Amino acid sequence: MVSVTANKKSPESLALASARSKLQTDLIKLRAMQFSLFPALQSIITSVDPTFPEKESLYLPSSFSESFRMAYGLNELGKIEYQLREGRAHDALQSIRTSIKTFNHNLDLKKTAVFGQHANTRAQGFLKQLAADKVSGAEKYRRMRAALIALGLPQNDTVLQQLDDDQLWGKDTSHMSQLGDSKRQDPWFWSVGRPSNLSPAEDLEWSIERRCQHFYQICNAKALAVDRVKWYRKRSARNRSREEKEILEEEMKRTLRTFGFLHNMWSTLGESARIPGDASYAHKQAAMFSQFEFNCQKVCDKAAKKRNEHAQWWVFNYLGLMCSIKTYFRRFFDKFKASVGKQS
After folding, report:
1. What is the pLDDT along the chain (344 residues), one digit of tens a residue?
2. Is 270 in the same domain as 323?
3. 37 and 92 housed in the same domain
4. Contact 126/103 with Cβ under 8 angstroms?
5. Count of domains in the chain?
6. Is the dihedral of CA 230, 231, 232, 237 positive or negative?
7. Residues 290 and 263 both lie in one domain
8. What are the angstrom distances between the C-alpha of 142 and each of 95, 96, 136, 253, 316?
9. One domain, residues 100 and 41
10. What angle do CA 320, 160, 70 make, to 5 degrees?
11. Both 81 and 53 in a single domain?
12. Is residue 89 part of a domain?
């Protein structure tokens, strides 16, 4: 009786054994397909371990070095994997954004509508599960990015950047903007998105839009997968910054005029004063306001220099953008003329 009980397996063990058996069968089919397409890999890929099939490598192109892929003819397959991995990476980023917004909503709900020890304990457990969803999406993105780097993605790519655990947050768009929100920027992945299955022309158009995203207006939801509420809030913050800049410029101009007027006024009073003490005090005040005017003008000149440098930088980038557009249309018309010539 004891031996029967000892040999009896738990439902979890039976389910795990069944899942491993199915995975082993699928891996054997994958190996057969790989050997039929690339027979040279038979000397490298080992047989599937039935004990722990989940630890087996899939031996995709990203698993090998660039020289190995060239030697065994895996370059074309690597390009296909690159496209698939890139799409999966953006899907993972979208999943992270959704998980963060879900977490923020439920956290706010817990603070305002959950009362009592039992309810708070259950809500806290649910929040832990939502936080784990964020980490799970981040791990998926890191795996996709690591594979893309192995396939040729630059380490310093501006679109698919490195994602750290301390970046898994975002501003709660269900609340009104608070004082200081514009100083705390959202992580980079809130303003990154790329549609899949783009043609070369659409890919160039998307690249141009990404270079101009600081003034890009969302008019097509398929163009950039960005959170619209966040985008409009950022636009409002930009408009407020521009207004504040204009106010500061006018205040500096008024301050310069005020210091200049007070300097001239005290100088006039010092020259017309008959008592030596009055003249000394007036000249002292004139010298003080003259120094104020000088310091204020120095700050204004520094700001003007920085503004000119930014204007030159903008002109340089604008010209580069125009050259890119010109090149794109030249290639388009060349292809169009070639196709018309072939038809005629």
Report:
1. 444 444 567 888 889 889 988 988 998 898 888 888 888 888 888 788 888 888 888 888 998 888 888 888 888 889 999 999 998 998 899 899 889 988 988 888 888 888 888 888 888 899 999 999 999 999 999 999 999 999 999 988 888 999 998 999 888 777 777 777 777 788 888 877 655 455 666 555 555 544 444 333 333 343 344 466 677 777 887 888 889 889 998 999 999 999 999 999 999 998 888 888 888 999 999 999 999 999 999 998 888 888 888 777 777 776 766 776 767 677 777 776 777 666 66
2. yes
3. no
4. no
5. 3
6. positive
7. yes
8. 13, 12, 10, 52, 35
9. no
10. 90
11. no
12. yes
Residue 45 shares a structural domain with residue 117: no
The answer to whether residue 192 is domain-embedded is no
- In one-letter notation, the amino acid at residue 253 is K
The neighbour count for residue 323, using CB atoms within 10 Å, is: 10
Cα separations in angstroms, 160 against 153, 157, 207 = 9, 6, 14
Backbone angles phi, psi at 31, to 5 degrees: -60, -45
Token couple for 122? 């259950």
Of 333, 253, 263, 321, nearest to 292 by C-alpha is 263
Domain-ending residue, one of 95, 129, 164: 164
Is residue 36 within 8 A of residue 53, CB to CB? The reply is no
Determine, yes or no, domain membership for 65: no
Instruction: In whole angstroms, give the CA distance from residue 311 to residue 262.
Output: 34
CB 92 within 8 A of CB 194: no
Beta strands in the chain (DSSP E): none
CA distance 25 to 31: 10
The model's pTM: 0.59
- Examine residue 134 and state whether it is found in any structural domain, yes or no: yes
Structural domain for 102, as ranges? 72-164
Give the whole-angstrom CA distance, residue 325 versus residue 290: 52
